Amino acid sequence: MAGIDFLTRTGQMCSEARQEFILLSDTLGASMLVDAINHRLPTGATATTVFGPFYTPPPAFADGDDISEGLTGTPLLITGSVRSASGKPLPDAIVDIWHCDADGFYDLQGPAGITSLSGRGRFCTQADGSFHLWTIRPTAYPIPTDGPVGEMLAAQGRHPFRPEHVHFLVEAPGHRKLVTHLFAQDDDWLFSDVVFGVKNSLIRHFERHEGGTAWGNRQMDGTWFSLRGDFQLAEALG
Q1: Are 95 and 170 in contact (CB under 8 A)?
Q2: What span, in angstroms and rounded, lies between the C-alpha atoms of 26 and 12?
């Protein structure tokens, strides 16, 4: 009965903006186990990781646009490309990107001052498979602990933190959908991620810059960061 009560309360925490069952699966390690079983990818394909509970279809943006509407923080330039596992550029691939704000909250969590979708966007790759965008640098954050998942973590003596990361969902015709993150290499929680989602091949350097001219001839004033994300997709099964 205690188990039934726990699962009932887990369901009661779910809403359009929050999926407590995904959070439970992630923190139990079940999501990453399923990921390992279902995504045995060929050499060259980018590794997958957990989907997370805060995805929603994002608004579309043009290449080079800024998705940080309403968010404050240090500017972040994300550049990248989408290719097949063999290295062929994939034009018109769909790249969905989402991340938390500088205080560790996603737009769906309703942080102060945020009344629309922010820190997320959909881009299409160019003829050479490339994409570029501006946003703000996210941060490490604790997962929500005000529900049954938080009770479970407390009982297990575990911390609730996820290391700093940016989410990507990448799709292209004839190829397998890629759900992954890129993680900041200098994060304190990198090797104790509460959802077990970090893979060594997904750790990246967020390069620091001071002033100067950035992509699109944007003149920068002060500190900003850049992140490179090159993704290679496995061919579709069957």
Answers
A1: yes
A2: 18
Q: Which two tokens stand for residue 165?
A: 């990361």
CA dist 102 and 20 (Å) reads: 23
CATH 2.40.50.180 fits 2-233, yes or no: no
* Beta strands, E only, the chain: 75-84, 94-98, 120-124, 130-136, 141-142, 161-162, 165-171, 178-184, 203-204, 207-214, 218-233
Tokens of 114: 């945020």
Question: Is residue 21's pLDDT more than 70?
Answer: yes
DSSP label at 30?
Answer: H
Is residue 231 within 8 Å of residue 83, measured between CB atoms? yes
Alpha-carbon distance of 7 to 26, in angstroms, equals 15
- Contact between 218 and 70 under an 8 Å Cβ cutoff? The reply is no
- The residue among 125 and 43 whose pLDDT is bigger is 125
Tell me the average pLDDT across 89-93.
Answer: 98
- CB-count exposure of residue 102 (10 Å: 0-12, 13-18, 19+): middle
* Tokens of residue 236, six digits: 């579709």
Mean pLDDT to the nearest integer, 167-191: 97
Q: What is the mean pLDDT of the segment spanning 46-67?
A: 93
The token pair that represents 203 in the structure block: 């750790």
* pLDDT recorded at residue 108: 83
**Between β-strands 161-162 and 141-142, what pairing exists: parallel, antiparallel or unpaired?**
antiparallel
C-alpha R_g of the chain: 18
Residue 202: DSSP 8-state = G
